[in-house]
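Our preliminary data section would be incomplete without showing what the modeling component actually yields. Below, a chain of 152 amino acids is followed by its predicted structure, encoded as tokens that our downstream tools consume directly.
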Amino acid sequence: MKTWSKGTVYLAVVLSAAGFLLIVLGWNGAAGKDFVQGQFPYVISGGIAGIALVMAGLTMALVQELRKHQAETVAKLDELVDAIVAGGGVASGGPTAVPADGDKVVAGRTTYHVPSCHLVDGRSDLQIMGTAAAKDRGLAPCRICEPQSDSA
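Predicted structure:
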């Protein structure tokens, strides 16, 4: 693919250069005419065709650059997936084992509560876990229900 991409870039440069050359030739031909009707053929053939070639060359260069960056991104994502699979999966802040005995608390986004706390009443996005697991996650105890007082 590297030879193809270099060839495409070279073709884009050649098209752009040919477009600029046509613009210059059109301008030069039109400059020798004193009347508008004589300048139109040069403007149309040289100017418009030149602009079209320049835009075609720039479009080819842009598309090739986007393809290159996409290929690099896909390669990096493949490496990342391989590293995750080789590492045994993704560690997440997902469900924690609920202790069979001991204190059970309800974990929120930043704090943990006793299950009877009115702040968490009726919410379904919370998780039950042990006090130690909640502290390990960096959650703070609720200032209203004070769950650490239940463990004393």
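The chain has a mean pLDDT of 80. The beta strands are 104-107, 111-113, 127-130, 140-141. Preliminary results of this kind motivate Aim 1 of the renewal.
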